[in-house]
Amino acid sequence: MTCQICGAWLPVGAMFCGECGSSRTATVQSRKRPDPRPNDTTIIARLPRPTVIISVPIPAVVPVPVRAAAVVTAVPSPADAAAPIAALPTHATFVLNFSAGQRVSVHGSGLIGRKPLPQPDEIFDALIRVADADRSVSKTHLEFGQHDGEFWVSDRVSGNGTVIRRPGEAAEQLEPGRRYVLPRGTRVEIADHSFSVA
Question: In terms of domain of life, where is this protein from (predicted)?
């Protein structure tokens, strides 16, 4: 008899392969572990996509070439050292009231999901976890932040998408990767859950 994994010869009565350590009854198919990711999010019915997208334009940063001769190093004078330093811009505080009863005050950027996890090169002020036993909310479902004191959200290519309902307007499905400015009073639906911005 030979091992079904590495093909080595097995003596009679052997329980394990002496070459690869596999069980005598192991097969290539039985050694494969199921990948939990494809079934990670339960897909629910989606709203049709709107034809008009309203989003916040993200300004492109254009690099400006600098010549070596034009670079000047400024040396602070003693009078400048005593001058007050301009304060950094502060963010407004927004309160997110979730349908499950959770209430979170946010003042910067963050991620919302079942197990929100930033990419290695990303830094956020808050990671908000949504308890969802049915797994309709993606692990990292939504990103939020501020632009000129206004609150915005962006869908992170979630399985069930994100729908916003601004006060007095029709429901709108978000296009993944675009930022949408939300006035206070907007309801944001993330799969089977939702939150309002106050």
Answer: Bacteria
Element (H, E) at 82: helix 78-82
First to last CA, the chain: 70
Nearest Cα residue to 44 out of 123, 160, 196: 160
Q: Return the closest-CA partner of residue 40 out of 135, 127, 130.
A: 135
d(CA 58, CA 178): 9
CA–CA separation, 195 vs 160, rounded Å? 16
Q: Distance (Å, rounded) from C-alpha 24 to C-alpha 93?
A: 63
pLDDT of 72 > 90? The answer is no
- 89: pLDDT confidence band, cut at 50, 70 and 90? low
Highest CATH level, class, for 91-197:
mainly beta
| pLDDT given for residue 70 in this prediction | 39
The first and second tokens of residue 150, run together, are: 């206004």
Domain positions in the chain are 1-33, 91-197
Q: What is the DSSP letter of 40?
A: S
